[in-house]
Design a protein that fits this description.
5 helices, elongated, single chain, 0% strand, mainly alpha
Length: 108
């Protein structure tokens, strides 16, 4: 089942498909480089804009599941956005259990 996307997102996807369809491999590679460089610049701002919405909805006491449905993301993604983490699981900061933090080197 295909997921419905907004008109704005679909326009972006269509434009990316046009980049992928460029016949000349070198021209295509240049265009891809330009797209990737721009995306890297925008990523933090886009994530911040999305986080603003999540925090506003949470301040209104909108449940996580409702936010996830409205933003078309998973429940875990909403929780991670609220916490300020949006990377892969392997990049999340690890917290040590309190007992391990309080124990000295000999206790470990």
């Amino acid at each position: 089942m295909a997921r419905e996307v907004s008109k704005e997102a679909q326009r972006v996807f269509d434009a990316l498909s046009q980049v992928e369809a460029i016949e000349d491999p070198e021209e295509r590679a240049v265009a891809i480089s330009e797209v990737l460089a721009d995306q890297a610049k925008r990523e933090a701002r886009l994530k911040a804009l999305r986080r603003e919405v999540v925090l506003q909805l949470r301040a209104q006491r909108v449940p996580y599941r409702a936010i996830a449905a409205r933003l078309k993301v998973s429940l875990g993604t909403v929780q991670n956005i609220e916490r300020g983490h949006s990377g892969a699981w392997g990049t999340k900061p690890r917290t040590k259990p309190e007992a391990a933090e309080e124990a000295g080197p000999a206790d470990r």
